[in-house]
Structures are given as C-alpha cells and as structure tokens.
C-alpha cells in the first residue's frame, strides 16, 4: 500500500481521481510486498509467506518469527491499517499496529505515517520488519 501511483484525471475530478488511483497503487504495493518476501526467503533461507486475501487486504507471516501482519486498505476512509498477530511461541509478543493515511499528491496517491510522508521502501519496512526480523524472537 505504500506506493506513489500516477493517475491522469481532470483536476475537478479529485474525489474520482483518488478512488481510481488507490486500487492500482494497492496492486503495485502488493507486488512489491511479494517481491520483498521472495527476496527475504531467497537470501535468508527462511519461509515467510505472502497472501493476498482480497484486492485490499494482504497477510504476511513467518513461522520463524511467530508473527503475522494483516494489512487492510479502507479506500473510502483513505487509510491503510495494519495489525500484528502472534502466531506461536517463537515471538516474544506482537507489536502494536497502526495506520497509514492516503492522500492525493502531485504524482498520485501518497502515503503518510503520523502526517509524515513515507517512501514505498520505508512503508514496506514499517510493515515487514517486525515480522521478518523482530527483536527478541528466535529468528533474530
């Protein structure tokens, strides 16, 4: 969900424009998340998994860390929420989740955390780091 997506629309169609841009931005982010997981598994020899539950919901988990992150976009409210869940005893606990807001920027949909713009890489790290490399886990 953390992708700046360019969209071509008339300026007076801002609400329609943001609705049209968000699904493609989310799809691009899902592709990036899947690539990050594939790279992690190849480099670390671990088996984290990625699942696209719906066009606006993703799950990433790792048996090694004992954590799962559930990422859900609410396109009407312009937010992406994420929650971490403990899956097994390999985790010392699950960190708190949070939200990213979606705003229409010059180049399309942009993502923000606590009103601070975040790059695609920063946002994916925010979502994946606790699952892939959590402090205090047996995987770390």
Write the layout of secondary structure elements.
Elements: H1 14-44, E1 48-54, E2 57-62, E3 67-74, E4 79-86, E5 98-105, E6 108-113, E7 116-117, H2 120-132
Antiparallel strand pairs: 1-2, 2-3, 3-4, 4-5, 5-6, 6-7
What does this structure look like?
The protein has one domain (11-132). It starts with 13 loop residues before the first helix and ends in an 8-residue tail after the last helix. The chain has a seven-stranded antiparallel β-sheet with strand order 1-2-3-4-5-6-7, with helices on one face. Helix 1 packs across helix 2 (120-132). It has helices spanning 14-44, 120-132, and strands at residues 48-54, 57-62, 67-74, 79-86, 98-105, 108-113, 116-117. 31% of the residues lie in helices and 32% in strands. The model is unreliable at 1-12 (pLDDT under 50). The chain has 140 residues and is α+β, with helices and mostly antiparallel strands.
End-to-end distance, in Å?
26 Å
Mean pLDDT level: 80
Strand order, biggest sheet?
A: 1-2-3-4-5-6-7
Summarize the amount of helix as a percent range. Answer: 25-40%
By helix and strand content, what is the structural category? alpha+beta
> Could you list the spans in which at least 5 consecutive residues all have pLDDT below 50?
1-12
Quick gist of this model?
The chain has 140 residues and is of the alpha+beta class. The protein contains 2 helices and 7 strands; from the N terminus they run H-E-E-E-E-E-E-E-H.
């Amino acid at each position: 969900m953390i992708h700046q997506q360019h969209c071509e629309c008339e300026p007076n169609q801002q609400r329609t424009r943001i609705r049209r841009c968000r699904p493609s931005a989310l799809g691009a982010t899902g592709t990036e998340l899947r690539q990050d997981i594939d790279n992690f598994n190849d480099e670390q020899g671990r088996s984290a998994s990625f699942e696209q539950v719906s066009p606006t919901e993703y799950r990433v988990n790792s048996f090694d860390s004992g954590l799962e992150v559930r990422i859900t976009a609410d396109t009407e409210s312009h937010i992406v929420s994420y929650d971490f869940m403990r899956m097994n005893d390999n985790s010392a606990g699950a960190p708190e989740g949070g939200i990213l807001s979606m705003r229409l920027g010059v180049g399309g949909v942009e993502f923000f955390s606590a009103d601070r713009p975040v790059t695609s890489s920063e946002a994916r790290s925010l979502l994946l780091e606790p699952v892939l490399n959590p402090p205090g886990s047996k995987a770390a």
